[in-house]
Amino acid sequence: MNERARALRNPAAAPATEAYGAVRSQTLNQAGFDAAYAEISSWPGYAATPLVRLDGLARALGLARIDYKDERGRFGLKSFKALGGAYAVANVLKQRVAAATGRKDIASKQLLSGGFADLVRGATVTCATDGNHGRSVAWGAQLFGCRCEIFVHEHVSQGRRDAIARYGAQVREVKGNYDDAVRHAAATAAANGWTVVSDTSYPGYRDIPLDVMHGYGVLAQEIARQSNDEPPTHVFAQAGVGALAAAICASFWLRWGPKRPFFAVVEPTHADCVYRSLEAGRPVVVGGDLDTVMAGLACGEVSELAWEILHGGANAAVAVDDAYALEAVRTLARPAAGDAPIVAGETGGAGLAALLAARDYPDIRRTLALDAKSRVLLLGSEGDTDPAIYREVVGRTAEEVLA
Ligand SMILES: Cc1ncc(COP(=O)(O)O)c(C=O)c1O
Questions:
Q1: How far is the CA of 274 from the centre of ligand 1 (A)?
Q2: Ligand 1 centroid to 180 CA: how many Å?
Q3: pLDDT digit string (tens) for 93-140?
């Protein structure tokens, strides 16, 4: 067993020729992705985030090509999470308006213009968060005009709490880990008549996290367009509850069918719930404090919806120690010859962390089917979401790195 990383082939991976199929379409589907794209791309400030080619890094790692989807600029929130939580908030509020007025044709544009402000103001949305999802829900609540209460666990940094509060949300601490905060948010919402806008699903709670995941599909649509619909050979998707990974996996499967890329899920060593679940062939809960510098990935339970896609859709899983995540952040900040510097938080750099592990351990490179012909897509899911931590890790601010 390697000391600092391990990789696993998914024994239940669907063959490349297997169609996405009607059963999976009951979870994530093209109509849902299209609806989310139409809405989100109509919001003020929408712009596709860059897909950056890192040829120097690819050469250094013995790969043909690396493309990095840089989510730092997403709606000013510094992570892809802006797409999911806020989209689900809009849908919650549209349903509230529909219930009160009978109008089912509301678009988020009408909420933005304040058309139903009186109805919307009475709603409260809530969730548990490691930071980024809560920021998205708080932003969505402010954008569309409802109240917001966000629950954070003990390990969420002050910088991340402040970033949520800046959007006018109440931020409350829960003792324990992320999963404790999820349970607490659900109980408090039930007692107060609030709506939980969670990025994770569980039995009986699926519709809202499904909206969140369809929102994440915007990333995949942009990537396909930016790469002229030419699929990479590999995708490395970091997983907390697995919603991002599943959304990207499903979207590429629907789009590219048998040409879809080899799909690898990346997690921290001590919060490897998708890895353990793929190994066991059923969802496995990982306990403990799940502590990792990859704050967005500190989750011990895979989302039910995510599992329905990843169980067959993931080809492999990788678990990496924090040291690789930190090396990835620094590598992106001080890039190989010819590449532009990139500002990534520790969670955002997780895909590169897996490639660094594959550089060090030939068995991991083999398990991930990486070779000199590989064209790898990395999901740069966040920028410097906590600027103080970023500066500590890199020794410079984001602005200095990019200067
Ligand atoms: C920046 C970032 N990347 C990736 C993830 C993982 O997403 P998911 O929990 O959907 O697996 C998160 C989750 O919070 C995140 O904040």
A1: 13
A2: 17
A3: 999 999 999 998 899 999 999 989 999 999 999 999 988 999 999 999
What is the distance in A from the centroid of ligand 1 to the CA of 147? 24
Which residue, 205, 318, 254, is CA-closest to 24?
254
Q: Evaluate the CA torsion angle 395, 396, 397, 401 in order and state its sign.
A: negative
CATH fold of 5-76+216-402, please?
Rossmann fold (3.40.50)
CATH 3.40.50.1100 boundaries in the chain: 5-76+216-402, 82-198
Residue nearest ligand 1's atom 5 by CA: 296
82-198 maps to which CATH number?
3.40.50.1100
The pair of structure tokens assigned to 140 is 């969505």
Q: Is 143 in the pocket of ligand 1 (CB under 6 A)?
A: no
CA-nearest of 181, 176, 128 to 150 is 128
* pTM, two decimal places: 0.96
Q: Do 318 and 40 meet the contact criterion of CB atoms below 8 Å apart?
A: no
Are 278 and 317 within 8 A, CB to CB?
yes
